[in-house]
Amino acid sequence: MASLAPASFGAALAAAHDAAGAQHYPQGTLYVVATPIGNLADITLRALHVLQLVDAIACEDTRHTQSMLRAYGIDRPGARLLAVHQHNEAEAAQTVVARLAQGERIAYVSDAGTPGVSDPGARLAAAVRAAGQRVLPLPGASSVTTLIGAAGLVADGGSDGNSSSSAFVFAGFLPSKAGERDTTVQALSQEPRAVVLLEAPHRIESLARALATLGERRITVGRELTKQFEEIATVTASALPEWFSADRDRTRGEFALVLHPVAVNGDGGAEGERVLRLLLAELPVKTAVKLAAEISGAPRNTLYETALRIRNGAEEA
Hints:
Elements: H1 10-20, E1 29-33, H2 45-53, E2 56-59, H3 62-71, E3 81-83, H4 89-101, E4 105-109, H5 122-130, E5 134-138, H6 143-151, E6 168-172, H7 178-188, E7 194-199, H8 204-211, E8 218-223, E9 231-236, H9 240-245, E10 255-259, H10 268-280, H11 285-296, H12 300-316
């Protein structure tokens, strides 16, 4: 995370008080606070106000959070920080619930971004809600939406005339074991919508090799988003391993990736059906659908429905 002197945020703290101080902040509430994913200036005024206001801050890493707070010029004693991470989340949640029952305001922050999105926080929020206490979200930075906004997700010429594709699936981190990861990638190959993935630097090249099997499907890579060495590039899946090997610096940092939606050309559906009809004359439905999808790039689910219609029509005839 980029470092700035505490004095740099003096005006921001004052602005946070002026902008958000008059709002209502109920007691006995868990405030789920999004924090920057790299650039400290991406904090919201309301987040700065709440981090000063609450009785305690639950966090993924107390040392990391203390460093972030000091960068903003917020002085919170270590005793006011509660460790809530993936190894103790269920147990620590009960401590938070008990303190909320006493009327305390508690904020929760992960190490970066929005809690509960591939970070701890979901179990804590669920436990608080199950206890009948309020969870109040403070939106902010997220690597998922940051990369989506820059990727330019467009499906080429959809049949409805709308080339924009706003729907996406968040898959997060794929399995670390090669076999499980490859199986997951093959499953994702049948997903026509955009798919957002996250990955760590020590596994990014393995992921790139697995994704290369998706051929001409486009992938946007976001590296070190919002940080000094941020890099965003769009390449085909087959070219992804070569893109990383071309510059060793590209394997450094944290990664978000977007599989673009399946391209649907004006005659893409017709081409898929043409190939499918040829294959159905010689092969079982499942095999014909699988090969037609690989050849034409058309979604497998759509081809399967078409195959059933073709077969049923042939039988009725």
